[in-house]
Structures are given as structure tokens and as C-alpha cells.
Write a structure and sequence with these properties.
Elements: H1 11-22, H2 30-38, E1 59-62, E2 65-67, H3 70-79, E3 87-91, H4 97-103, E4 108-113, H5 116-128, E5 134-138, E6 151-156, H6 165-168, E7 171-182, E8 187-194, E9 200-208
Helix pairs in contact: 1-2
The chain binds S-adenosyl-L-homocysteine (SAH).
Length: 227
């Protein structure tokens, strides 16, 4: 039977991505590997880019933004140490791919995107793929989502100049915040664990490169397009 692009499910490509890009580089959390084997990443990129969806790099998604490289998604997801019962806040919905991965690993995902057009597209994919435990809002996620706080885990998928204090305050005790922090073009991935009401433990997980977080606690404006 011939297999058109519309029905191709890219399972072979996904298996290879998990083996070569994730397992081979040290991603060991079985639940994360399973989620990334299951989520159809090609659905989150434009049709013309689908054949590249499982390659080892970010891809453009419009508005000068990118869907992160699969390895970054896996690394950040693993760092949140999800067991399945958590409420997770993601800042920077973008294509919606990271939200979909999180939705398979937690009870509920709340996600915030500043570009309405990207949010609309992501919503269409969530609906098409029946990701029913994702709640999205359009706005500045750099301030978090106060009305829905506290969260068991928070992930920021855009680079901020500093660790954002108000996000730390929106964690439950024991909660994890993962975010890239640094300059416009180069950041360090940080994990902050809330150990007590006012006690936080911070560690570096390595160098990374994300589009900038633009907003109240982020950068003031978008730079000339990077990747
Ligand atoms: N998690 C996304 C990555 C997208 S890139 C994915 O899987 O595709 C980062 C996204 O963060 C971009 O879509 C950008 O528009 C968004 N962003 C940047 N600053 C933001 C802010 N202050 N609030 C909400 N979204 C923001």
C-alpha cells in the first residue's frame, strides 16, 4: 500500500531520534523516552519541514521563533523529574511540541505564548491529536501564571537575562524550575529546586541556545532574527 505524507506517522524516524539523539547522549528517564517516541513531532512543524522534524536541530515555526532541538526538549523534560501527578507550567508554547511531551508525563500542563498566531496553531494541533490536559493562554509568561500557582514544575523554553524570582515563588515546596539564563545568544540551562519556603538550590545543566524570553522579566525587545 502506498503511504502518503498525510498519513505517514514517522515512527521509524522517531525511533532513530530516540536512540541516536537521546539515549546515546545520556537521556535515561524511560518515561521521557517513551513520551518522545509517542509524540508526533512532525505535526508541530509546517508541512514543508515535516521530513526534517526528527533531525538533530531546531526548526523555524514562524514569528522568528523555533521548535527546540529534540535533545533540548528531552534534557529539560528529564530535569523536571515528573512522575505523572504534577501540574506543570510551561512558558513559551511556540509550536506546542514541548507542551505535548509534558502532557504525557504530568497531570496537567498550563502553557503561555506571547504570539497569538503561534498559540492558535498549537491549539489546532492539540485538538487534532487529542491532548486534552493542556490549558493555554496568550500573554507575557515571564510573570508566570499567578492565578493558577503554585506549580510542581515550571519550564521556560526561551532565554532570560536572570533567574526570575516571581517564577521561583510560584513553585510548591520541592518544586522544580528549569530555564535558560544568560545573554541574548548564549545561555546556561539552570535547574532551581525549592527546598523550603525561602530556600532554593540552583545548579547548572550545561550551555544552551534559545530564542529570547521577551517580557516584563525577560528582554525588552526582539533582536534581529537568530536561528
Ligand atoms: N516550547 C516551544 C519552543 C518555542 S521557542 C516548542 O516546543 O516549540 C520559545 C517560545 O517562547 C516562542 O514561541 C516565543 O514566542 C515564546 N516567548 C518568548 N517570550 C515569551 C513570554 N514572555 N511569554 C510567553 N511566551 C514567550
Amino acid at each position: 500500500m502506498s503511504e502518503g505524507l498525510a498519513v505517514k506517522d514517522f515512527l521509524k524516524e522517531r525511533r532513530r531520534m530516540v536512540e541516536e539523539q537521546l539515549k546515546a547522549r545520556g537521556i535515561g528517564d524511560e518515561r521521557v523516552l517513551e513520551a518522545m517516541l509517542a509524540v508526533p513531532r512532525h505535526m508541530f512543524v509546517e508541512e514543508a519541514l515535516r521530513s526534517q522534524a526528527y533531525n538533530d536541530f531546531p526548526l523555524p515555526i514562524g514569528e522568528g521563533q523555533t521548535i527546540s532541538q529534540p535533545y533540548s526538549v528531552a534534557l529539560m523534560t528529564e530535569a523536571l523529574q515528573l512522575q505523572g501527578e504534577e501540574t506543570v507550567l510551561e512558558i513559551g508554547t511556540g509550536s506546542g511540541y514541548q507542551s505535548a511531551v509534558l502532557s504525557r508525563l504530568a497531570k496537567q500542563v498550563l502553557t503561555v505564548e506571547r504570539f497569538p498566531r503561534l498559540a492558535r496553531k498549537a491549539r489546532m494541533v492539540f485538538d487534532a491529536c487529542a491532548y486534552t490536559n493542556i490549558m493555554m493562554r496568550v500573554g507575557d509568561g515571564s510573570v508566570g501564571w499567578e492565578e493558577k500557582a503554585p506549580f510542581d514544575a515550571i519550564m521556560v523554553t526561551a532565554g532570560a537575562p536572570v533567574v526570575i524570582e516571581s517564577l521561583k515563588q510560584q513553585l510548591v515546596p520541592g518544586g522544580r524550575l528549569v530555564m535558560p539564563v544568560g545573554s541574548f545568544r548564549q545561555q546556561v540551562l539552570k535547574r532551581i529546586v525549592r527546598e523550603g519556603a525561602a530556600r532554593f538550590h540552583e545548579e547548572n545543566l550545561g550551555a544552551c541556545h534559545f530564542v529570547p524570553l521577551v517580557g516584563h522579566y525577560g528582554w525588552r525587545e526582539t533582536p534581529a532574527r537568530s536561528c
